[in-house]
Design a protein that fits this description.
The complex is a heterodimer of chains A (443) and B (149).
Chain A (H helix, E strand, L loop, with lengths): L7 E3 L19 E4 L2 E4 L9 H5 L5 E3 L12 E6 L15 H8 L4 E2 L2 H17 L7 E2 L4 H10 L13 H17 L6 E7 L2 H8 L11 E4 H13 L18 H4 L6 H6 L4 E5 L1 H12 L8 E5 L15 H14 L5 H4 L2 H7 L21 H17 L13 H10 L8 H26 L1
Helix pairs in contact in A: 2-7, 3-5, 4-10, 14-15
Chain B lengths: L3 E7 L9 H13 L3 H21 L3 E7 L3 E8 L7 H5 L8 H5 L8 H7 L2 E7 L3 E9 L11
Antiparallel strand pairs in B: 1-2, 2-3, 3-5, 4-5
Helix pairs in contact in B: 1-2, 2-5
Classes of the chains: A alpha/beta (443), B alpha+beta (149).
The complex binds iron/sulfur cluster (2 copies).
Chain lengths: 443, 149
Amino acid sequence: MAKELHSVKLDKGKCVGCTNCLKRCPTEAIRIRAGRARIVDELCIDCGACIRVCEHHAKVAVTDPLSSINRFKYKIALPAPTLYGQFKNLKDISAVPRGLMRMGFNEVFDVARGADIVSRAVMEKLTEPDCPQPLISSACPAVVRLIQIRFPELIDNIVDIRSPMEIAASMARREFCKKHSVRPEEVGCFFITPCPAKATAVRLPIGHEKSAVDGVISMMEIYGLLSNQIRRDQGDDADYVFNSQNRGTALGIGWARSGGESLAIGEEDALAVDGIDNVNRVLEAIENDRLPDLKYFEGLACDGGCVGGPIAFENVFIARNRIRKLVSELPKVSIDKAVSLDELEALGDEMRLDKPIEPMETLKLDADFTEALKKMDKIEEIRKKLPGLDCGSCGSPTCQALAEDIVGGYAKEMDCLFLLKEQITLMARQMVEISELTREKNT
Amino acid sequence: MHVLREEFDVVAMDFTTAGEASATIKRLLKKLGVNSSVVRRLSIACYEAEINLVIHSMGGKLILTVGAQDVTLTSEDVGPGIPDIDLAMSEGYSTASEDVRMMGFGAGMGLANMARNADGFSIESKVGVGTRIEMVFRLTDAQKTEGAV
Ligand code: SF4
Ligand code: SF4
């Protein structure tokens, strides 16, 4: 994966090389070299775990500034459902799109509406006779990346439907162009996100060529401005109609929380798992065929689901609870009422993934099997010499990882402080011996 | 040819470590770049074997041998042995005790599942002594065995 495609980056000036992030990265993608953290591009899934743990704020999510919307004549905001959980005392959710309109957008289209559509498409998919079991949600790009890296055998189980964000962007643009008779190039769609993985998915879409989204704006960035707008909201002072065409149902908004997607599709044999380590474990179980009855798997990298996204403003529990309350107050509309089959039909290919999701065999020690075996032996040999404390001071997350890094040529044995200490002790002893010898000779 | 051999001890009735050997074996094979469908079949069989050792034996080990053409997984235990192998090979057969079944394990001994996922399968058992299962997975011939997955 090319460098500029990742959204999680290191701010070199702030990194002190403390190793806090080193051990928290679920894919062991971080190394400390020359006193600074480095992210191994091939391994990073943009989950943002390192952003959360870095006390020095040296891990950052690269998103677009709000001003970038001015690249387009017409600007559409696509708020992720999580946005509704960010504000205190939000009585009417349409105050959020009204606020966005006052911030300079010409239209707001709920990503929750995209979620409704994906829910319906998944429901249909589940009735197909050759539907893979379990079907795995494609909603969280960090989880899809994890599958590409660690569970290539499960790639075929990923649902071949684009994310709510993509579907919302295509629909919003098409409807806006129709309504205002403007050309598609004049319209910019901006996703408002709690999630660096989504920003990456816009730059490097998984399973399709080009993203319909033109820019990604972090929730953190607009939080201040938007909460001011919401506070000043008078009810209907902005020229905005929030209706069933551009707004999501309660179930669609519920996608912000872990389990929301499973609830929306109404599948009994669904399993929702949040937190990347949990997702990893359950995928492991699925790979070992331990969940033969499971029909649908919803895996979300962030604790709590997208409300726990690393670039959301509000604490995950508070936001999650707000979403729960907001959703319970909205009218209960079932997905099959909100999205008709005709509507799905009309979207057709625009909704589907049309490029295969490729496995990324980054775990492989060598392209050649015999070489890999030899390397494995060498790694084992080195690992036996290491103290097994997984202290991280060498800059690799575990002793095993250091052994692999040494064999891969990215580190050396003396990076291990314990081996270094031994070596120094040995050298000191030899020095003493030499000097004693020379003294003996001289006397 | 270079051959890799690793042994993993499996402790009877220890559910805190149950599954760890299989997970380690799986990771190791992925690092070696073994074809992912082979890894998957082997993982399924390996997990069954490991859980069998935990539940049905008095302890044993899994031995992994990786050669140029194939991977062999051997499960050896000290235990009650299987009196009627044909019966044990039938789907759903279980000798798991009631408490183990209560934990959701032991719906079957999984021998049939192991055999289905492996390219070669052999089993020897002596009542009152123990059981030895050998499973071979071909590396070169990467096509999926029908019925796996
Ligand atoms: S974003 Fe996630 S995968 Fe990437 S380096 Fe940070 S913790 Fe690791
Ligand atoms: S759970 Fe949601 S916010 Fe977190 S990485 Fe996945 S899609 Fe992004």
